[in-house]
Amino acid sequence: MAFASTPDVDTLKEAWPELPLEAWRDSYATLHRYTQILGKVKLALTPTENHWWNVAFRVTARGLTTGLIPYGNGGFEVDFDFLAHELLFRTSQGDTRVLGLESRPVAEFYRDVMATLRSLGVEVRIWDTPVEIPDDTTRFSEDRHHATYQPEYVQRWWRALLQSSLVLEEFRARFTGKCSPVHFFWGSFDLAVTRFSGRSAPERPGADLITREAYCEEVCSAGFWPGTPEAKGAAYYCYAAPEPEGFPAASVRPGGARYDSGFKEYLLAYDEVRRSGDPRSSLLDFLQSTYEACADLGGWDRARLERPLYLPEHAAASRAPEGATLPEQPAH
Length: 332
Description:
33% of the residues lie in helices and 20% in strands. It has helices spanning 9-15, 21-45, 106-119, 151-172, 209-214, 270-274, 279-297, 302-305, 313-319, and strands at residues 58-59, 63-65, 69-71, 74-81, 86-91, 96-100, 183-185, 190-200, 217-225, 235-241, 258-260, 265-269. The chain is globular, with a radius of gyration of 21 Å.
């Protein structure tokens, strides 16, 4: 597929497909649990990193990957392929296994995933209860009522995730302070990138261990989420933690962005972005303006956190945001 500088309407519709929540909510619920099973395997076997970055997945050209999980004298990885609708297991010894992604109960998927890992010599135990899904915490091993997998809608969601990831990576590249990767959290089922001010955050009274580690520093976090009926479907979000005074009333872009007092986040509907005619620019505008509101109101040292990259002149020019002024390059 060739990439055009100005994509036509049909190309945009394919890249940024419709994703009505009601049409795929059962598949969403099932897939959420599928990803949590593999996520908990990764949680059990990887060294803990700051802010729990070790548990997250990454977006790939075909779906999602756990990335390399250490085990014994090597490691393995598991990929969700949403083009072929397969779950691919690969080890550093060269062994592979494939499970189909299809409509079947979570209990059967859980059984087959654990059996496949054992066949590869991987022995792991996980807590088989969903997290961050408060309305139904049926154990994976007993869940027979979540059993829907619609390939078309799962692929639509992944394509939206892919486009969102590409834009979030571009946004991330503008920041040279501490910043998370662009990664997918299977607990909340969202794609996220988080910038840090470099200062410690006040302790949250009564916070659990996970929350304390996640928010021990001042952050501005943004991402993409399939949403809930309350959020009116898929949306982009941005929140500040702790939230600086005046943040809810900040002037952000584009016009459809709004602060939701229930979520305590700025939200921009996915539909608003994909229908904008220039989804990339629309989303970058939202990400940049909400970050600036957080950083300016929170007193972040933006000059230090957004220092220019030291690049050869021709490389810097090709990577600079539109309208940016490049620093003078040192003499060679």
